[in-house]
């Protein structure tokens, strides 16, 4: 299964903030979960959640990027169950207000917490 996506955007600020991954993932998380014949052990689920949370923290805090379209098909799975966030087509570079909240609300209100 070919999961690798290339991100090209005219917003140079956003493009330069993203780390373009050149290695090919084994699959995406959606495919990984569907092909499993048995439940995923709790420890592995917690590891996946931790990796996703750390990736989002890096995007939001360090790069000031809001992903917009985070879903299992946009999480790439590599050898050793290493996860990396992909699918940046809808990503937005945001300007931080003094209290750290993005300046502009993006995304679908259905998914807003």
Give structural attributes.
Transferase(Phosphotransferase), domain 1; three-stranded antiparallel sheet; disordered N terminus; 113 residues; alpha+beta; 3 helices
Quick description:
30% of the residues lie in helices and 12% in strands. By secondary structure, it is α+β, with helices and mostly antiparallel strands.
Describe the protein's architecture and organization.
The chain has 113 residues and is an alpha+beta fold. The chain has one domain (12-111): Orthogonal Bundle (Transferase(Phosphotransferase), domain 1). Helices cover 30% and strands 12% of the residues. The chain has 3 helices and 5 strands; from the N terminus they run αβααββββ. It has helices at 12-17, 29-35, 42-62, and strands spanning 27-28, 65-66, 75-78, 82-85, 92-93. The strands form 2 sheets. Strands 1-3-4 form a 3-stranded antiparallel sheet. It has a two-stranded antiparallel ribbon with strand order 2-5. A hairpin with a 3-residue loop joins strand 3 and strand 4. The longest helix has 21 residues, at 42-62. The protein is elongated. It starts with 11 loop residues before the first helix and ends in a 20-residue tail after the last strand.
């Amino acid at each position: 299964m070919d999961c690798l996506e290339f991100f090209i955007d005219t917003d140079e600020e956003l493009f330069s903030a993203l780390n373009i991954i050149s290695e090919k993932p084994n699959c995406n998380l959606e495919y990984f979960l569907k092909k499993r014949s048995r439940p995923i052990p709790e420890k592995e689920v917690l590891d996946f959640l931790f990796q996703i949370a750390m990736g989002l923290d890096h995007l939001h805090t360090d790069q000031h990027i809001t992903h917009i379209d985070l879903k299992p098909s946009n999480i790439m799975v590599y050898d050793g169950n290493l996860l990396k966030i992909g699918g940046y087509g809808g990503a937005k570079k945001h300007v931080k207000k003094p209290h750290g909240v993005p300046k502009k609300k993006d995304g679908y209100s259905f998914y807003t917490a």
